[in-house]
Each structure stands twice: as structure tokens, then as C-alpha cells.
Amino acid sequence: MSPRLIFWISNSVRMLLVIIGTVIASSMWGITWGLFLGLVAMAVLILMQLFYLQRLADWLDNPRSSRLPDGWGAWTDIFSRLYKLRREDEKNQTELTEWLARFRQAMTLLPDGVVIMDDVLFLEWCNPAAESHLGLSLIQDKGMRVTNLVRSPEFMDYIILGRYDTPLTLSFRDRKLITHIIPFENRRQILVTHDITESERIDMMRRDFIANASHELRTPLTVINGFLEIASLQPELDAATRSAHLKLMSEQGARMQRLVEDMLTLTRLESMDHLLRTETINMRVMLEQILQEAHALSAGHHQVTLDFNGPDIRGSTDEIRSALTNLVTNAIRYTPEKGTIQISWTNGNAGPKFTVADNGIGISPEHISRLTERFYRVDKSRSRETQGTGLGLAIVKHVLLRHKATLLIDSVPNVGSKFSVQFPANAVIEA
Ligand code: ADP
């Protein structure tokens, strides 16, 4: 039965009862008493309705804190329906609050900046990423014009032109941002910012690397092509000149091979930041091998010594050998004849340490922080003379990164250099 029907039936029954009561009272005590009692009963009914109406009005004034009465007659049904409505409303409110909290949390975690502005660009809300991208502060800047906060001519032009269908690449506060304005609702706009500083830096590095690598490969190729041209144009060249040319060509070929090998090593190291497999490295065997190679490279022109006083470590034998060999080879290549190269392997509180100290040409302080960049050389011609690829220390840096070790460089021009590798204490293998 519909609530409306219940309401009408219950009220009609009540009225009917009053009329029947009036008729019975009239027949028992006369018409005057009958009407009087009927009126009293009607008055009671009306007062009851007024009482519940008043309670309803009180409740509507403050539905959250005041309680609805249980009701009487048709009011029972009205109140129970109001209760139901309120419960649903409370449930919806809770759901909405929870959803809003989740939405805010998602916006807080979003790496992209989101700024909500009104139609005249007054800041209404922004997330933490937007605060950091654009230097905003929601607490302080709310209600201020975004164009007064993001002071950039490029951004102003973008706003003035209003061509929001294409994003703007904005250079702002040492960052590169892709900014996009999206109008929404009737009078609001969202400004989205995406930080591309890091990817731009990587792209730039990649472009530089390709340019440098091409340049490095072009030089030996030019030399080889030059000699090949001479050989084809002057077939009657004497045997001594021809063999000298062949020797130079094979040197340039070897140089290209070293370059390609170093580039491949670097690419392999860069593609994985962490070591996949580690093994026990027998440091005594490895360092004695490196010492022998150093003697061979120096060909008796330097005094090379090894002070072995450290433990075995865990790591990749091939990678560590290649890094330490690079450092020792550099010490020989950049130390004039009769110089000394001291290699040492020690253990301390911070962990095991490898050091190679030379009394060679040394390095000026302004170059030191850049030595591990790819193709960075202090003196290009000297590096080429000594068969350098310019990639040695970049390879060392990557190998050490994968072993959580650090490279320390200490050098004074014309006095000498000290390259140390500090391994973490947990790399030690207890004897
Ligand atoms: P390269 O193949 O040119 O030697 P590296 O990456 O091994 O490239 O070294 C980068 C630069 O660091 C070298 O070109 C050289 O200028 C400098 N360098 C490295 N080791 C030494 C050293 N022991 N003494 C002086 N300069 C050094």
C-alpha cells in the first residue's frame, strides 16, 4: 500500500471515529454534550498534529543534532521516511568526503602540476607538484592572479594569444615545463604542468654523445682514407713509405676498435644500474696481474709498486679489473718517464680502499669534477698521443656506481694525482 494511501486512510478513520463518537454521545447525553465532546476530540486531534508539526519544524531547523520523535498515527510513517532520507544523506556525505580525500591524495601524489583557476586566472587550488614547478604556495597565493605569480613573458604571451589547443614549452626557474591550459565548467580553467627537465638533459647528453662519438671516429677514418687515396694514386711508392703508411693505418684502426669497444662497454654498464651477479674477487691475484700489465705498459720507464694490505671483496671481477686497470693505465700514460706509480690496497673503518698515486702531470682543480664525463679530456692531443678514448673514467664511474663505491680524485698540476676508490665496508669478504 502506498504511503499516501496509508496517510489518507488513517486520518479518515480518525475523523470517522470522532464523528461516530459525537453521534453516540449525542444519543446518550443530548446533542449539546455530544457536539461538545466531538469538538474536544477534534481539538485534541488538531493539537496533536500541531505538536508533531512543531517537532518537525524544530528538526528541520537543525536536522543533524536534534532527534525526531517516534511519531503517532500518520506521523510515524512520515518520520520514518525522513529518518531513512537522513541516513541516505549521511551515507552519501561520508562517501563524498571519502572520495574527495582520495582525490586530494591522488592529486598530491601526481608528478604533474595541476592548478585550478577561475576564468580571469585567479588561483583557486593547486597540488604540491604545481607548487614546486611554478614556485606557488596554495596557502599564501590563493586568490591571486596566476600571471602575477608565474612571471614569464612566454607564459604571458601564451595567455594573451589564448591558443590553448597547443601546449607551451616553458623555461621557468631552471626547469623546462610543458604547460597546458584546459578550460572546464563555464568559468574555470585547469593549468597542467609536466616537468621535462630531466628528459631534456638526457636527450642533450645523448645528442652530445653521438656528436662526440662521430667526431672521434671521423678522425681515424680520415687518416685511413687519406693513406688509401695515396696508395691508389701513387702505386709506385717505395716499400719503406708503404709500410710506414700501413703502420699508421693499423694504429688508427686499433684506435677505432678501442673506441667502439669502450662505447659498447659504457652502453652495457649504463643499461643496468645494479649488479645482477656478484662473486668473490681474489684481490691479490687481480692486483698482481694489474701490476704486471702496468710494468709491461711502462716498458721500464716508470717505477711501479704495489702495497697489498686489504681483504678480498664481493663484486664483478671483470668490471672491477677493468676499472682499476683504467686508473693504473692513466697513471702511467699521464706520468713522464722516470716517474713513480704507487698502487695500494688497504682496509679501514669506511671499508677497503684502492689507491693509485703518481707524480705525473697532475690536473688543474677546475677540470676535476668533469673528468668522468664521456669524452672529457684535459688535453686532447696528449690523450690521443697516449691512445686514450676519453671514455676510461666514465667507465670507471659506472662500474663503481654499480658496486656502491666512490671515486676520489686528488691532484695538483705538475706534482701528481691520486685516484682512490672507496668500497663500502659490507663489500669485504671475511677471511
Ligand atoms: P683518456 O682516454 O683521455 O685518458 P679518461 O676518461 O681515462 O680518458 O681520462 C679523462 C682525462 O682525465 C684524461 O684525458 C686526462 O686529461 C685526465 N687524467 C686521467 N688520469 C690522469 C692522471 N693520472 N694524471 C693526469 N691526468 C689524468
TrEMBL record:
EC number: 2.7.13.3
Primary localization: membrane
Domain Histidine kinase stretches: 212-427
A molecular function (GO) term: phosphorelay sensor kinase activity
Membrane topology value: Multi-pass membrane protein
Known function: Member of the two-component regulatory system PhoR/PhoB involved in the phosphate regulon genes expression. PhoR may function as a membrane-associated protein kinase that phosphorylates PhoB in response to environmental signals.
The protein's name in its UniProt record: Phosphate regulon sensor protein PhoR
The species this protein was found in: Undibacterium oligocarboniphilum
